[in-house]
């Protein structure tokens, strides 16, 4: 079967860090690929992250509005954040959800993990399904450089926002699509 391809790795001949920032590094590499090519590649080495599809019992989704530098405007997306070194996805999801939104929960499961662009970054985002009770809240405690506004939005409106492109972050589209395709029907 084709999708059971070998897991042969390339042989990294040289690697040089050309930039090191707060959450990622850029590394220039020379690699002998498993299929016999010698290539020069830039790798964005990125911290792992979590994104949470947080649902209420009546199918409302927690949506964040936050300024994002990549598009130089506010975006609408699921709550998400970087994992701390050595932190597992479940613990990171619980922490990030509380920090950004004030919602608390112990009902968290991982749906899947995605990679946004394997051709240039090793970033992995764990997509988590979280069930929340709107009455269970705690004060938010943002990172020093962030401000997030959160609101519960009916799932059908969130799906419409994905379809129209109003919600376009890869992890949000991925989590909502995964939920719709593989999880939602199992709940019925």
TrEMBL record:
Keyword Hydrolase: yes
Molecular function via GO: hydrolase activity
Top-rank lineage group of the source organism: Bacteria
CDD domains: NUDIX_ADPRase_Nudt5_UGPPase_Nudt14
Broad class of enzyme this protein falls into: hydrolase
Keyword tags: Hydrolase
Keyword Signal included in the entry's annotation: no
PROSITE patterns given in the database record: NUDIX, NUDIX_BOX
Domain Nudix hydrolase residues, every copy: 44-175
SUPFAM superfamilies for this protein: Nudix
Entry cofactors: Mg(2+)
Catalytic activity, EC: 3.6.-.-
Protein name (database record): NUDIX hydrolase
Annotated source species: Lacticaseibacillus hegangensis
